[in-house]
Amino acid sequence: MRARRLEKLGLKTAQSIIFCLPRDYERPAPPKRIDQLRDREPASLIGTVTDRDITSRTPGKSVFAALVENETGAVRILFFNQAYRMEQILVDQKVMISGTPKLNAMRMEFVHPQVTVFDSDEDIPTPRMLALYPLTEGLRQKDLRFLVAETLDAVSDQLTEVMPEPLRHSAAVRLGEAGIETPTVLPNIQTTLRELHQPSSESSMQFARVRLVFQELLVMQLALAMRRRRLTSALKSPPLPTTALIDARILHRFPFELTGDQIKAIKEVSRDMSCQFPMNRLLQGDVGSGKTVVAMYAMMLAVANGHQAVMMAPTEVLARQHYHTLKKVLAESRVRIGLLCGSISKAERSRTIDAAHHGEIDILVGTQALLYGDIRMKKLGLCVIDEQHKFGVNQRVALRSGGVDPHYLVMSATPIPRSMAMTLFGDVELSTLREKPPSRAPVHTYLAHDGWKDRWWSFVIERLKEGRQVFVVAPRVVASSTEVESEPLGKSHEEESLENEDVSSVETIFKELSSTTLSEYRIALLHGRMPAEEKQATMQAFADGEIDVLVSTTVIEVGIDVPNATVMTIFGAQRFGLAQLHQLRGRISRGTHAGHLCVFTDGDLPPAENERLKLLEKTDDGFELAEADFRLRGPGDMLGRKQSGMPPLRIADPLRDIDILTVARTMAQEMIDEDPDLEAAEMSELKSQVIRRYGKRLDLGDVA
Ligand code: ADP
Ligand code: MG
């Protein structure tokens, strides 16, 4: 019976039993002060017996009473018909008493309390922590505690230690330096499991937890470091180093001072590009943080070294925008720039492809769809991918040229929390632009309820009269559909509950606004189901100022730059993730005029009562919002954990354990630098754990 229940919980082997770790602990209350006891409230206390007496020795009629005192007062304890207590409870003895006191006259009295007698002061225990296990379906916590204790006793000396003592020692030092409290050596595996299941104190339980969390993260980071190393030694790229002269020439072209973060990112990129293995760097930064400058620097660096660069954008509008920016910045130089996108004539297209092939174009800009075709560059050195939201450990793009791999720089405005970048995308290097270029106008965010609609639209009309342009965003294309259009972050998180609800749709809103409130303005509709050319034309017209109001799904989320658009209304906001809303908000922070975003939700709950949306109102920091998304919705939702191909962690939580993760990552890197295949004899257990857990997934096969 018990065996079957255990099996149901997945506890078939001794191994699975002792690694079924407590989810929490029951911590008995510490002894009470006598002056804080309350009538009829259970309590325990420690004190000294100062007096005792028995009223009658007649069996069946005796009353034993004793006085127990400590610095905080005195209580009386009473036992009826337990004359033998006279032999157990002596004057001057230290005792612990647990029970429910009652007030009798001015004194608290415990009738038949539990009494523990201590021989000496050292025996006085701190109240014991008891493990609370997850999923005990059909089993009592007590049974599980017993089973675990039994198993632990039986197999404790057969446990394999994957972290030899010197490693546990250096880990403790490094964790200590990072501000994590540890003993001088992390506990060995026996002590670790013992302390987790039967803690002797809060701190030793914590040390045990740190050790196991560290171990899990170290194993993962070792796997990732091995993989990084293999990638970098297997692939060859042209080294594209910078010099003071090149650096000065490139910087000279920008009409503004770079921000500190841009300079730092440029340094990181240049360092990577000077190596003979491919850069694999993710440049993340909030909308408007100036990622393009870093990308342009990298491309010019490639060209300065006699190589070509390509830049891919997800939409044609964006590709054109980059093309024009590059043209402007490089106007008086010899750098030749080409553009490839859908609306270009066939003849011109083949001319461009031909020129790129013969090395007559230095920088080729285009949409991804086109550039992934069979374009043969003469001497490709760098590939920049803009506004890429989805990465996976296994993602590398197959764009090669003459047998060498180009360096990769991938840019994203959906910030990935550092913890996630280090776990899910361990082989990608990360550069971050946190600082924004100066003199950006702020965006005001308002959480509105339906009662505000009239007021809001008259505000919008005032801005329109001033010549500004306006976005209106809703989650759905048509009202009747159950489908939510949410690009490019994938599916919305509440799709399942959509069927019978009123969800704002762009078609309904478009009809309503164009026939009533905004009928005097040039208003257009945009969504993912429109034919590509039509979408293209509409976005371009809006960018060119030929449209005043664009009613759109989230297709506008991706990097389009229309500085004159400063007002946005979002309907059905509860359907969107925070990072996505922030990304949308970024569309109206491009110019010198302050932006205004008004957020409405569908249904009864006004946005001001939605915890997530309140955060959006409160902070303008994309990283903070991404962290919150990660916490509230899980990483899978944000970027597709499945895609990343990493197994889930069992004990560690990257968000909570970010400091331990950072130490594990640094140490893993150092260990692999020193011993690339972990061949040292004392590392053999550790290595087999790495291979067992990650070998297949990360394709580390032949290391084993
Ligand atoms: P994003 O990171 O969203 O791609 P962009 O690279 O498009 O941002 O930059 C947004 C705007 O800020 C552009 O108009 C760009 O010219 C400007 N910009 C970038 N860096 C700076 C800087 N250091 N100082 C002033 N303006 C800058
Ligand atoms: Mg951009």
TrEMBL record:
GO biological process: DNA repair
InterPro entries to which the protein is assigned, alphabetical: DEAD/DEAH_box_helicase_dom, Helicase_ATP-bd, Helicase_C-like, NA-bd_OB-fold, P-loop_NTPase, RecG/Mfd, RecG_dom3_C, RecG_wedge
Gene Ontology molecular function: ATP binding; DNA binding; DNA helicase activity; hydrolase activity
CDD domains: DEXHc_RecG, RecG_wedge_OBF
Residue ranges annotated for the Helicase C-terminal domain, each copy included: 476-631
Gene3D superfamilies associated with the record: Nucleic acid-binding proteins, P-loop containing nucleotide triphosphate hydrolases
The entry's keywords: ATP-binding, DNA damage, DNA repair, DNA-binding, Helicase, Hydrolase, Nucleotide-binding
Transmembrane segments: none
Keyword Isomerase recorded: no
Keyword tRNA-binding: no
Source organism superkingdom: Bacteria
Domain Helicase ATP-binding, first and last residues per copy: 272-433
Protein name: Probable DNA 3'-5' helicase RecG
Species annotation: Novipirellula aureliae
